[in-house]
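Re: Re: token formats

Sure, here are both.
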Amino acid sequence: MRRKRYSRDSEAELDITAFMNLMIVLVPILLLGMVFSRITVVEVTLPPAATLAATPDDDKQVELVIRGDGLRVDFPRGVRLKTIPLTEEGEYDFELLSLVLQEVKRQLLEQGIERRNITLLPEQDIDYQTIVAAMDAVRSFRTLVAASVVDAALFPDIAFGDAPAAPEGGKAG
């Protein structure tokens, strides 16, 4: 009896059509389900202690007091420059704050002082989102340079402290 010999020249074919169909459906679904996030780290410092020896530029410190009834820009330290009340909707006016700080920055540069730091002084009951929005407003502002909108540095070095006590009337005048 003779045995039939099968030739080993023919190779088995692998059918991956079902796998490809699964990938075509699965990849877009997984991509849509992904969470894209961006984490930003902002380094903050404590304000300089009052007991340290004062430098000549310390009187040119810019401070932002954040109260429940509005914002107050102090320049130089402790001297009220501008009070920004809440808008009619009861929100903080960070656009006006940015304009005021741009003017302060311009005045400092005209005097030959390169100031990059600001001290935020929020009251105890100010919510976190308001503080973050204030940090964004004081760090940079959008401007047009060579037909492109860019973020220009304003006061990128931020320090924190406690707001001074409110005046007797309860308002942050």
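Second one below.
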Amino acid sequence: MISLMAGMGMIEPIFLGEYDEYAILEGAEWNNQVMSVVDLVSNRDDIDTLINVEEMDFDGVLYVVGEELNSVINRFIPNQFKLFPAYPNPFNSSTTIRYDIPNKSSVDIFVIDLLGRKVKTLISENSVDIGSHQVKWHGLDDKGNLMPSGIYLIQFVSKDYIHQYKTVMIK
């Protein structure tokens, strides 16, 4: 359950998912100093950005959004490999790719065009630590050239897990 402050009263809609499926956006100049929570699984419940969230309840544990929940997420140890959809998507200048690693592992993350050509290696490491990680793609290929607008695949490859998502770059 995620409780939202709205107008005069409290709305308490129920949202599916675990806390690792939500990103916390701290209040900043670009978002008018409003802390919000973004659901990383798009269109799960037709609401992707939850603004002015006061508290979140996952598996019976209640968290007030702020330092407490952020520190829980920072200490989070994933129990499975997982590649999350790139965010934002579509994107203009850059997109962030988040992924979870349950045990120390080799990881490769590539950007592939629709012809199946690898255009960018984002990560290629033999020993990535356990935890939640993220990498940004700025729309450049391995030679530093800006790629044209279009659809690209973000591919995650490890010994135990292979997955990919589409992302759209718009200039």
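The first helix runs from residue 67 to 75. The chain has two domains: 2-75, 82-169.
- S.
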